[in-house]
Amino acid sequence: MNIKKFVKYFLIGFLILIVIGVTASSLVWFLAKEDKEIAKTFTLLSSKGMYVEASELMHDALKKEFPIESFENGFKNSKPYVDTSFSSVSMENNVTVLKGTAKTEDGCSSVLDFKILDGKIISFNISPLCLNQLNFFTLQFLFILTTLINSREPNTAYFKFYLLSAK
Predict the structure, then answer these.
(1) Measured on CA atoms in the order 59, 111, 45, 73, is the torsion positive or negative?
(2) What distance in Å separates the CA atoms of residue 97 and residue 115, rounded to the nearest whole number?
(3) Residue 123, SS3?
Protein backbone atom coordinates (compact mmCIF):
# COMPACT_ATOMS: atom_id res chain seq x y z
CA MET A 1 0.00 0.00 0.00
CA ASN A 2 1.42 3.35 -0.90
CA ILE A 3 1.60 6.38 1.37
CA LYS A 4 -1.17 8.33 -0.41
CA LYS A 5 -3.74 5.58 0.16
CA PHE A 6 -2.69 5.28 3.80
CA VAL A 7 -3.10 9.02 4.41
CA LYS A 8 -6.43 8.98 2.55
CA TYR A 9 -7.84 6.13 4.67
CA PHE A 10 -6.45 7.66 7.85
CA LEU A 11 -8.16 11.01 7.12
CA ILE A 12 -11.44 9.31 6.24
CA GLY A 13 -11.33 7.31 9.49
CA PHE A 14 -10.46 10.42 11.47
CA LEU A 15 -13.36 12.38 9.92
CA ILE A 16 -15.77 9.52 10.68
CA LEU A 17 -14.66 9.57 14.34
CA ILE A 18 -15.20 13.34 14.51
CA VAL A 19 -18.70 13.02 13.02
CA ILE A 20 -19.57 10.24 15.50
CA GLY A 21 -18.25 12.33 18.43
CA VAL A 22 -20.14 15.46 17.41
CA THR A 23 -23.33 13.46 16.85
CA ALA A 24 -23.05 11.72 20.22
CA SER A 25 -22.41 14.93 22.15
CA SER A 26 -25.27 16.71 20.33
CA LEU A 27 -27.56 13.81 21.17
CA VAL A 28 -26.66 14.02 24.88
CA TRP A 29 -27.26 17.80 24.91
CA PHE A 30 -30.60 17.34 23.12
CA LEU A 31 -31.77 14.54 25.42
CA ALA A 32 -30.74 16.52 28.51
CA LYS A 33 -32.59 19.69 27.47
CA GLU A 34 -35.63 18.93 29.65
CA ASP A 35 -33.42 17.96 32.61
CA LYS A 36 -31.45 21.22 32.29
CA GLU A 37 -34.73 23.13 32.42
CA ILE A 38 -35.77 21.18 35.56
CA ALA A 39 -32.48 22.02 37.31
CA LYS A 40 -32.69 25.68 36.26
CA THR A 41 -36.29 26.01 37.45
CA PHE A 42 -35.45 24.31 40.75
CA THR A 43 -32.51 26.66 41.38
CA LEU A 44 -34.52 29.80 40.59
CA LEU A 45 -37.60 28.75 42.59
CA SER A 46 -35.70 27.62 45.68
CA SER A 47 -33.65 30.81 45.86
CA LYS A 48 -36.81 32.92 45.56
CA GLY A 49 -38.53 31.21 48.49
CA MET A 50 -40.94 29.14 46.40
CA TYR A 51 -40.12 25.94 48.28
CA VAL A 52 -43.32 23.97 47.60
CA GLU A 53 -43.05 24.54 43.85
CA ALA A 54 -39.34 23.67 43.88
CA SER A 55 -39.89 20.52 45.93
CA GLU A 56 -42.35 19.25 43.31
CA LEU A 57 -39.32 18.82 41.03
CA MET A 58 -37.65 16.44 43.51
CA HIS A 59 -37.96 12.67 43.52
CA ASP A 60 -40.24 11.34 46.30
CA ALA A 61 -37.29 9.74 48.12
CA LEU A 62 -35.43 13.08 48.15
CA LYS A 63 -38.56 14.87 49.43
CA LYS A 64 -38.59 12.50 52.41
CA GLU A 65 -34.92 13.17 53.14
CA PHE A 66 -35.32 16.91 52.63
CA PRO A 67 -38.78 18.04 53.88
CA ILE A 68 -40.10 21.55 53.25
CA GLU A 69 -39.00 22.79 56.71
CA SER A 70 -35.39 21.74 56.05
CA PHE A 71 -35.62 23.13 52.55
CA GLU A 72 -36.80 26.50 53.86
CA ASN A 73 -34.12 26.61 56.57
CA GLY A 74 -31.45 25.90 53.99
CA PHE A 75 -32.53 28.54 51.51
CA LYS A 76 -34.29 31.25 53.52
CA ASN A 77 -31.27 33.58 53.55
CA SER A 78 -30.20 32.94 49.97
CA LYS A 79 -30.07 35.65 47.35
CA PRO A 80 -32.30 35.01 44.33
CA TYR A 81 -30.44 33.59 41.37
CA VAL A 82 -31.20 35.18 38.01
CA ASP A 83 -29.15 33.03 35.63
CA THR A 84 -28.00 29.43 35.37
CA SER A 85 -25.78 27.65 32.88
CA PHE A 86 -24.57 24.08 32.57
CA SER A 87 -21.13 23.40 31.13
CA SER A 88 -21.09 19.65 31.69
CA VAL A 89 -23.86 17.23 30.78
CA SER A 90 -23.52 13.48 30.92
CA MET A 91 -25.80 10.48 31.11
CA GLU A 92 -24.99 7.45 33.24
CA ASN A 93 -27.47 4.56 33.75
CA ASN A 94 -30.47 6.72 32.74
CA VAL A 95 -29.35 9.44 35.18
CA THR A 96 -28.57 12.86 33.78
CA VAL A 97 -25.64 14.52 35.55
CA LEU A 98 -25.49 18.31 35.21
CA LYS A 99 -22.70 20.57 36.40
CA GLY A 100 -22.76 24.33 36.01
CA THR A 101 -23.12 27.69 37.72
CA ALA A 102 -25.83 30.02 38.97
CA LYS A 103 -25.45 33.79 39.35
CA THR A 104 -27.28 36.42 41.33
CA GLU A 105 -28.02 39.92 40.09
CA ASP A 106 -25.03 41.32 42.00
CA GLY A 107 -22.63 38.77 40.45
CA CYS A 108 -22.35 36.21 43.23
CA SER A 109 -21.78 32.74 41.74
CA SER A 110 -22.51 29.23 42.99
CA VAL A 111 -21.54 25.85 41.59
CA LEU A 112 -24.47 23.62 40.61
CA ASP A 113 -24.40 19.84 40.66
CA PHE A 114 -27.60 17.93 39.84
CA LYS A 115 -28.56 14.31 39.21
CA ILE A 116 -31.93 13.77 37.53
CA LEU A 117 -33.73 10.46 36.99
CA ASP A 118 -36.96 10.20 34.98
CA GLY A 119 -37.59 13.94 35.15
CA LYS A 120 -37.12 14.19 38.94
CA ILE A 121 -34.14 15.51 40.92
CA ILE A 122 -32.51 12.71 42.91
CA SER A 123 -29.63 14.82 44.26
CA PHE A 124 -28.44 18.41 44.10
CA ASN A 125 -25.71 20.60 45.50
CA ILE A 126 -25.57 24.39 45.27
CA SER A 127 -22.40 25.69 46.82
CA PRO A 128 -21.44 28.07 48.13
CA LEU A 129 -24.96 29.36 48.51
CA CYS A 130 -25.11 33.12 47.86
CA LEU A 131 -26.50 34.57 51.08
CA ASN A 132 -28.09 37.91 51.84
CA GLN A 133 -25.90 40.04 54.06
CA LEU A 134 -27.30 41.42 57.26
CA ASN A 135 -27.95 45.07 56.66
CA PHE A 136 -26.67 47.85 58.90
CA PHE A 137 -29.98 48.27 60.76
CA THR A 138 -30.18 44.55 61.55
CA LEU A 139 -26.65 44.70 62.92
CA GLN A 140 -27.60 47.76 65.00
CA PHE A 141 -30.59 45.93 66.43
CA LEU A 142 -28.49 42.87 67.32
CA PHE A 143 -25.88 45.13 68.93
CA ILE A 144 -28.52 46.98 70.97
CA LEU A 145 -30.18 43.77 72.08
CA THR A 146 -26.85 42.29 73.17
CA THR A 147 -25.92 45.51 74.95
CA LEU A 148 -29.25 45.71 76.78
CA ILE A 149 -28.98 42.12 77.90
CA ASN A 150 -25.41 42.54 79.11
CA SER A 151 -25.70 46.09 80.47
CA ARG A 152 -26.60 46.87 84.05
CA GLU A 153 -27.07 50.55 83.33
CA PRO A 154 -29.82 51.42 80.82
CA ASN A 155 -28.23 54.80 79.97
CA THR A 156 -25.05 53.05 78.90
CA ALA A 157 -26.99 50.95 76.42
CA TYR A 158 -28.68 54.07 74.99
CA PHE A 159 -25.34 55.87 74.71
CA LYS A 160 -23.74 52.96 72.84
CA PHE A 161 -26.70 52.86 70.43
CA TYR A 162 -26.43 56.59 69.83
CA LEU A 163 -22.71 56.36 69.00
CA LEU A 164 -23.32 53.48 66.62
CA SER A 165 -26.16 55.35 64.87
CA ALA A 166 -24.09 58.46 64.45
CA LYS A 167 -21.42 56.70 62.36
Answers:
(1) positive
(2) 5
(3) strand
